[in-house]
Design a protein that fits this description.
Layout: E1 3-6, E2 25-34, H1 41-50, H2 55-68, E3 96-97, E4 100-105, E5 109-115, E6 119-129, E7 135-146, H3 149-180
Antiparallel strand pairs: 1-2, 2-7, 3-4, 4-5, 5-6, 6-7
Helix pairs in contact: 1-3
Length: 187
């Protein structure tokens, strides 16, 4: 499995719809998956954004929250663990996935946004069938706009962890996907 990294959003993505101002940071990670028949865009979003994160990620989030809370910024985990759907293969329309409010959606893409005093953050999850193939491309794209110097100072130490968390989330998606499909349908 290979995860590709890009410095722009995928063609046709809705992530920049109604975006005002500069984009100060953008990344997009792509994972190619086979046999995604049981995975809707909602299921994929639930696995990536609403499933229980690994312990190291929870620890990093608690550390971040303990620091940024002093500055009046939004914190990341309201409880010890987010409440995932009971069955990740069941799709449902929601206005929030995990901690992230949904601002735009289609059958193939979900765009979420968080706006705080220091920065504006958007994430897009886009699933696209590859032409002449049974494979799908899953893109996880992030854009950030800094509102002030605090945004830049905040994001500087967060950026390397963001990259690790995104790639680990895509790997977790692939692991869970492999558990959902019958092994005899794998190539």
């Amino acid at each position: 499995m290979k995860i590709n990294k890009y410095a722009t959003q995928p063609d046709g993505s809705m992530i920049l719809y109604d975006w005002n101002g500069a984009v100060h940071y953008i990344d997009s990670y792509q994972l190619i998956m086979s046999n995604p028949d049981k995975l809707s865009i909602d299921t994929v979003a639930n696995i990536i954004f609403a499933s229980d994160p690994p312990k190291w990620q929870k620890a990093l989030t608690r550390l971040r929250d303990s620091i940024v809370g002093f500055f009046g910024l939004k914190t990341g985990m309201p409880s010890e663990s987010p409440q995932p759907q009971s069955d990740p293969t069941q799709s449902q329309l929601v206005d929030k996935i995990g901690l992230f409010p949904v601002i735009n959606r289609s059958d193939s893409e979900i765009v979420m946004e968080l706006d705080d005093k220091h920065l504006l953050f958007r994430a897009s999850l886009l699933m696209r069938k590859l032409q002449n193939s049974d494979q799908y491309s899953v893109f996880l794209t992030t854009i950030v706009q800094f509102h002030n110097l605090w945004g830049r100072m905040y994001f500087f130490p967060v950026k390397p962890f963001h990259r690790i968390i995104v790639t680990q989330s895509l790997k977790r998606l692939l692991r869970q996907h492999n558990e959902l499909i019958p092994q005899d349908s794998l190539p």
